[in-house]
């Protein structure tokens, strides 16, 4: 997994955790257990009643054993989306 992340260093990524949270930030580093370091990180909190709330976190570490998905973000497309108009149910936790 870590060799797959190497090209994403200094790129904006999204991390979905096992408990259903979504973090977005610039990948600054990772280790052999897929712990990731995000710079300028934020958490996007989804709600069915109101738009996406974006909580600024700054420098943030996500433990590898809590990561479900890591994906690249297209900055151009992401900047064109008005997240305040998006309504969605929060993700459910991953059940093993």
TrEMBL record:
InterPro entries documented for this protein: Lsm8, LSM_dom_sf, PTHR15588, Sm, Sm_dom_euk/arc
Swiss-Prot/TrEMBL GO biological process terms: mRNA splicing, via spliceosome
Record localization: Nucleus
Protein name (Swiss-Prot/TrEMBL): U6 snRNA-associated Sm-like protein LSm8
Taxonomic lineage: Eukaryota, Sar, Alveolata, Colpodellida, Vitrellaceae
Family in the record: Belongs to the snRNP Sm proteins family.
Domain Sm: 1-76
Subunit and partners: LSm subunits form a heteromer with a doughnut shape.
Encoding gene, per UniProt annotation: LSM8
Keywords, sorted A to Z: mRNA processing, mRNA splicing, Nucleus, Ribonucleoprotein, RNA-binding, Spliceosome
Any one GO molecular function term: mRNA binding
A cellular component annotation (GO) from this entry: U4/U6 x U5 tri-snRNP complex
Function text: Plays role in pre-mRNA splicing as component of the U4/U6-U5 tri-snRNP complex that is involved in spliceosome assembly, and as component of the precatalytic spliceosome (spliceosome B complex). The heptameric LSM2-8 complex binds specifically to the 3'-terminal U-tract of U6 snRNA.
Taxonomic source organism: Vitrella brassicaformis (strain CCMP3155)
């Amino acid at each position: 997994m870590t060799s797959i992340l190497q090209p994403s260093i200094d790129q904006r990524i999204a991390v979905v955790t096992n408990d259903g949270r979504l973090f977005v930030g610039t990948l600054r580093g990772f280790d052999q257990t897929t712990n990731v370091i995000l710079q300028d990180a934020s958490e996007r909190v989804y709600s069915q009643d109101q738009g996406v709330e974006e909580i600024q976190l700054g420098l943030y570490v996500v433990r590898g054993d809590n990561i479900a998905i890591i994906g690249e973000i297209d900055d151009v497309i992401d900047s064109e989306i008005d997240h305040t108009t998006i309504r969605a149910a929060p993700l459910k936790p991953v059940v093993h």
